[in-house]
Structures
1.
Amino acid sequence: MHLTISPWCRAETEFRNKGRVLPWEMVTRPDQYLSGAHPCFAFLSTEQRRIKTLQKSATISYAHMVGWVRTAAGKSLNVMLQVNQGDIGAVLGEVIREGAPKRLQAFDVDQLPALVEAA
């Protein structure tokens, strides 16, 4: 087997336009955007450019969060409840984490019981 060392190397990255606007300069100056996307390619250009992503700031309601948990983990929680012979405290002890979801932080966590009762 004969190996040939080539002076050519191919590098690529994929830029998607979801949540961002892709500038035309990406076509005319791809080295700047490739080097801006990956630090290991910084040697390609003295100027690195990054594409800013637009982030939507959204909050969720308690009811929406309950629906998401039901969809995402409802069946798993059901199995865990069966394994723990109906002991919900044991199930919750295995999965509960400190804090609140970032999108729910618009609400004061201490006031959530009152907000849920009012709904």
2.
Amino acid sequence: MPSQIRIYTQKKQAEEWLRRYRSCLPVFACVLGFTETGLIPGISAAGRTPEDRKYTACADAEFLYYGAEHKPQYPLPPLAAGASPVLISRAVFESLKIPVHLFNAGLPQAPAVPLIDLGGTWAKCLSGGNAMEITTVHHLLKQGLLWGERLAANIQQGYLIIGECVVGGTTTALAILTGLGIEAAGKVNSSHPVCNHAQKWALVQAGLERMRGDGAMGRWGTLGPSAPPDPLKLVAAVGDPMQVVVAGMAIAASRSCGVLLAGGTQMLAVYALMSAIAQAYAFSWQPEQVVVGTTRWVAEDPTGATVDLALTFNKGSSTQIAATPPLLATALNFSDSRYPQLRAYEQGFVKEGMGAGAACIAAHLSQDWQQNQLLAAIEAQLERLSLVNY
């Protein structure tokens, strides 16, 4: 296996997946969404201010699709430190000519790029326990299933990478994981160098309490096998629109091709959601076809516990969750970069997003790219964007 890919859980299953898709080029689908949770001061570093964070997904989508030379309607937002992970994704997808499909699951404004509008809405802050209408969640699941099947139908021997852009999405991920009975408190990641666990947990507790109080989940009592929550009602209460789309997309695609869920905490939550939805609604899927791929900055984040979180799946109180997902990461390292914006990743800033880790895994897997090739391609993107003084 490529030395630049690290395996953290389910080693045998992960190695088999990597062998199966060695030398194959993937297709990339990126699902964009928004939650008003991302506007809370201090909740995320994916944009310096709440106003900046409203447009992060639009800016990332535009850069991913058009590249550095395009004059954007939505420029990449300034960050407290570092540079957008879309630079990493764009460097790989442009070099390897990997097809990119963008989906709007629910944004306040449409990005200035060709994309597929799924007819969703953005989510309200999860702390209210009423993030989305249940009808919207059902609609988005159907759209995810439909597009997962469509995308997979055009993949002969390869695999589908599914990425995301949701500012504040690690907090909604914590809410979904907790609601499904997985002990995730203190284990999720963030775009901050030191994860803001207390802030996230306070919001999640508020949202889950309001959900229970409003009867949105029926009679809860305790989170356990005797009363498993309806996963779609859980998303409607404390989730975001990306989660249910990606879950549906991955369930459908897994039936006929490989799936690489591109992200850390957020995609672990999606994996748990897939398991719960498949069981609650009797959907068939192929868990052995699905892996989660991220960056080592996420997998080895000293202020989170990503690997422990993945291993917690088969210890959870909910019978809806499948076994521990295979967790992979690129060994990409920016310590020797010429640019402080990239070296900031080594200090814990940014870490992941827009499928960055999975893009690198694809480059290692299909072309056997090494550290020096990846770094050169990413630095070239930064230079072309004239972000040296960013």
